[in-house]
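agent> step 3/5: call structure_predict on target 'histidine kinase' (Lactobacillus johnsonii N6.2).
agent> reason: downstream docking stage needs a structural representation; sequence fetched in step 2, passing through unchanged.
tool.input:
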Amino acid sequence: MIQKFRWKFIGMSIMALFVVLVITLGALLGVSYTQSHNEVDRVLTALVNNQGQLTPRNAKPVFGNQKDPINKNFLAGEYNPEAVFQYRYFTVAETPQSNPRIVNDDNVYDVGRAEILSTSKRIFKDKTTDGVVTIGNNQYAYRVGKNQTGRKFIVYLNESLIYHRFSLLVRVSIVLGIGALIVFALVLILVSKKAIGPIITTYRKQREFITNAGHELKTPLAIIAANTEMEEMLGNNSEWNKSTKEQVDRLTRLINRLIALARTGETGEVVLNKVDFSEIVKKNVNSFKSVMQKNNLKYSGMIMPDLYVKAEKNVLSELINILLDNARKYCDKDGKVLVTLTKGRLGTNAILKVANTYKEGKGKDYSHFFERFYREDESHNSKHSGFGIGLAMAQEIVHTFHGKIHVSHKDDMIIFTVILKLAK
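tool.output (status=ok):
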């Protein structure tokens, strides 16, 4: 259990860091993308306003006065006149014959004139005002404007270069994020044992207390049982003595269950070997026949032979006893109890099912059934004798064997299913 808690702690911590990184880096990338998008928009605006010509002087009104606290663009930073020379753009004008003509391509390299003209002709024809096109190996944002004579012209801006900073930041963020997660995970694995040290100490002390207190309580119970038997031998066989014996037996069972529950808390205390699951189930099913008959229950078992699992024989037997005893206690009057042991569909698991008639179970919440000391009757005045630790102990045992256990309700029957891997 401690190791499970440790790895759960590590997993949740890494997940928390992952969420923080996603939010932080995502926000950073979002700001960078917005900045690049706004930069493209500002440059196109400057180009259109100046009919395809961009200079440090005519670009300043669009980029803003960064010394003005009201109009200052915080994301864009302070305006640098030299920055306009980094942009690659060209302009295409419409002739009186409505044909496109390249008027400024000094700021681009290796762009086919035929491709520019055909693309511009299509844009003039479609009457679109802005958009994005691919020319050569680059992506160009364009915007349509009008000159002083009313003739249309198109300015093209190479936005691939502007968004290159954003794509670089994406790659760096991914690498740094993965690196941070790996480093954090390694550090967490190294220090996690020390971090949960107080919890480990408290848990071990709790288990030791339960075990020691259980053994201490057995002594006075043994004396009470012996005194009661002596009273009976002396002829004082009253209903009070009978009640005392029943309560002593009940307390003894409770103490044994508590000690067993404490001992099954750590996998290291149970040595797993290859055991005959079929034989153990068969033996325990047969031992409950008389008890089931005494309660007027229809009892049957269907056990597939030669199914072996990795477990501890006595602890596995205790698991089956808990499930059978639970089925006996909570089965409806004159109901039936059915036990099946089969091989899973893929042939890798052994599946044990213990089912009993329980008509009132339809629609109930079964999510708490395996919690320690959970009782459906919160007043503890249930007609069924139980302590609320049997199923919790069953779950501990199954987890110790690296298996799964769950409960369901179908056709007026409550079904407990245990899945264990078959041993090779």
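agent> step 4/5: record observation. Residues 377-387 have pLDDT under 50 and may be disordered.
agent> proceeding.
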